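User: Batch of two.

Assistant: Item 1 of 2:
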Amino acid sequence: MEKRRALAALALVVPLPSIGVLASMYVAPGPIGASVWLASKLLFVALPLLWWLWVERERPSLSPARHGGFGFGLASGIGLSLAVFGFWLAVGEHWIDGVELRRLVEANGIGTRGRFLAISLYTIFVNSLIEEYAWRWFVYSRLERLVRPSVAVGLAACAFTLHHTLLLGAQFGWSFAAVASVGVLVAGGFWSWTYARYRSIWPGWASHALVDATLLAIGWRLIFG
């Protein structure tokens, strides 16, 4: 019974981000695709909590970090951010065209400094938290009920990477998406392992937020000089 519930939960939650990206970037760009993307995002947030409360009948928790977890998250975030920045300095300019990136952000209505800053703050502080809550807590924990933890880490990372690959492919082309997806896969696996170790979303969120801040700082430099 527990394994059937875990499979049902995964079938409901895992496809949602990919559905949103496919609708908004590939199938129906424009108002319809944006509406599907928004609906999938809201469901991605709501379904894990509703499942936890109504199907599994558990109590809500703030997922407290213990035993040095938050410090580990900050330290790992700094390390990963340095690796991202180093990779960018080495090869980044060969993969992303600043002119094309500016065109992309303008087409999406975030081509001004104020709007780009607003979406950056949302990504760093809110979206990263949503992803840690949904991918690491909910998806990883359900996978752990089906397979051993090391396999669950890998599967959760693959699920996390899929919609990022679709998104990057639409925005930057498939050559860049293939390379960047390796980084997403490694980061997703690391953050799943972090959750497995500390049983809290906050260490992974601290690390994730710092990496997103680094990526967006690079984006700011490319777009606005």
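Item 2 of 2:
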Amino acid sequence: MPTVNADECVACGACEDACPQSAITVDDIAVIDASKCVDCGACVDECPSGAISE
């Protein structure tokens, strides 16, 4: 499952929009709901700050 580096996340919402499972919410940082995540990697590809890694 992808992980979010809180120090690098700028809370832009790109990953939230890219997630086909609606598994990501963004407030101060992106948070990935493990019960919804299907490990597709769409969020990793869309993160402009490189804060999400597999």
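The chain has a mean pLDDT of 97.
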